[in-house]
Amino acid sequence: MSINLLGYDMPSPIIVAPTGSHKLANPEGEVATARAAAACNTLMVLSFSASCKIEEVASSCDAIRFYQLYVFKNRDISATLVQRAESHGFKAIVLTVDTPMLGRREADIRNKMVAPANANLEGLMPIDDLDTTDGSKLEKYVRDTLDPSLSWKDVEWLKSITSLPILLKGIVTAEDARKAVEAGAASIIVSNHGARQLDYAPATISALEEVVKAVAGAVPVLVDGGVRRGTDVLKALALGARAVMVGRPVLYGLAARGQAGAKHVIEMLNRELELAMALCGCRSVAEITRDRVQTEGDRFRSLL
Is 193 assigned a catalytic role? Predict the structure, then answer.
């Protein structure tokens, strides 16, 4: 089940996706998640909205770590976060490109959601004075701080301030995939932000093959969203993904049993993938070919 991603060997194609505020699930937060990932020899992407500092996670274990970034109106904040991640051994930057504005999250608005404190922004910007009278604190925070003019020029800017490879997260179309390659992305992550940004956006498993065909092997393609079983991983690999990113299930494990629970979830998905591969006659990831799955489009074309 082993793969190589951007020069790093991993025992399986299952990666821990960036999800925020792990201390809501367990007091040890992202430190426990990072240790779980390290115990499974897999890669973890630390969320921009982590409840543990970059430095805490870096010193907690020797897991391979990428850092998720957003582009702020104040570019100095983004640049400082990149520099901190790079200086503490993070191996790549994952730039989220699907959030120039926050999607309308009606439950958050109704509940006047107060976003947990972002440990990595301490000393960089004040966030305690955001008024939630007219909606969620998270919505106002994004509106006031993130740059809605986010464009391909920002990828060029990011490349100018770091030597780390840059992955673009939030690509779901062939057109954007080709532009991402032209902009110098080291990898593309097919993601719809947990289906929380745009109503009626396509499921990532449906958008995956279009993106894979568009990049034509120029860069590795990853996918996140809806991965709950090892069979989901196999389907994504058959459609061309190099690896999958798993978010909510790891958080569920962390909430249930801390570090051990997060580790159990990763191990369980690995076992399920191994079983699915065996039952499909695949002796390695390379043998998980397109003919192992049938999509709705395949079924429709078979009737023509």
Answer: yes
